[in-house]
Amino acid sequence: MTKKAFEIVKTDLEIQEHLDAHKTGFIVQKFGIVFIIGLVVAAALGVFGDGILSKRSDAKGDILLEYERFYRHEARMELSFVMVNVANDAEISFPNQYLKDVRVESIIPEPNSTRIERDKVHYSFEGKGNMRITFYMVPRKMGTLNGSIDLNGHSFSLSHFIFP
Amino acid sequence: MVIHFHYLTSFFLKNMNPVVRGLAVYLFVFIVFRIMGKRTLAEITTFDAILLLIISETTTDALIGEDYSLMACFIMVCTLVGTDYIFSKIKEHSQWFHIASEGAPLVIVENGKPLKKRMKKSRVDEQDVLEAARSLHGLERMNQVKYAVLERDGSISVIPETR
To answer: pLDDT-derived band of residue A31, with 50, 70 and 90 as boundaries?
Structure first.
């Protein structure tokens, strides 16, 4: 924007226009509006969770883990295990350190039993065939959150980034 | 010292202290409304009023989280009012900050002639000026307006042409 963009006015009003401040302000506003639109688009795509950029999945054998790469502090996120043709019961183990930073709100279906052993919390589920187990979790810490979850001998490493 | 700083930042961020929440929301709302320009809330339509209600409801949730205690309410009110007081004090002492935070008045009509570039940048049209001229002074035409000024609060003040 050049100085010619504004009409020069000579008034008898006792007024301090601060034209340079207006010019700077309009430039800042332009960038600000681009930033706001960018933020909305990024959020719609899932940069802050619940979108295509946030969904992650990891498959090992007949097990698929679906989780959120990005999420928000104190908001409820999903972590799902999808299993096909399971012959035995399923056991999912979370490290204590991971559960220190994430609060498990509910589990669907509910586990048959829960036990703590060797710095891990083990959830056991009875069932055979196709299974979907969903953990609803609330991050209690901001920033990077890593964990390694075991399911029937398979180990899944996952990493979240939690926004404020 | 580094350890202490790290401890303090992680403590505040990990627990999302109510003061930090209050400050963050205050600054974010302040910046967003400043970016959107002074005309954003100068004339509130029915839809704008509803939008404001939705914004206030949304910010309330972010402010208090799941802490419904009386103490959290006191802390939040004091944080917001205190921040506003500090801002007003800074404005008193720094003209730069005063202009940056509240803007400055801008002449948009001179001797009945709309200053198009100024109006366009400020997102004000001739109808806005005529509306202000009608409601404030009962003026009928633009050539009856000597000056129109877009004030810092987004309102338009009109000085009629003297006959």
So the answer is: very high
Rounded-to-integer distance, Cα B122 and Cα B106, Å: 9
For the segment A93-118, what is each residue's pLDDT rounded down to a tens digit? 999 999 999 999 999 999 999 999 88
- Among A53-57, A77-81, B121-125, whose mean pLDDT is lowest? B121-125
Measured between alpha carbons, how far is residue A66 from residues A82, A133, A157, B12, B161 in Å? 8, 10, 12, 31, 70
How far is A85 from chain B, CA to nearest CA, in Å? Answer: 41
For residue B118, the chain A residues in CB contact (below 8 A) are 6-7
Break chain A into its structural domains and give their ranges: 16-45, 55-163
Domains of chain B by range and CATH? 2-102 (no CATH), 106-160 (3.30.240.20)
pLDDT at B54: 92
Strand partners for A162: A71, A143
Residue of A nearest to B101 (CA): A25
Candidates B16, B106, B159; nearest CB to A22: B106
CATH hierarchy code of domain A55-163: 2.60.40.680
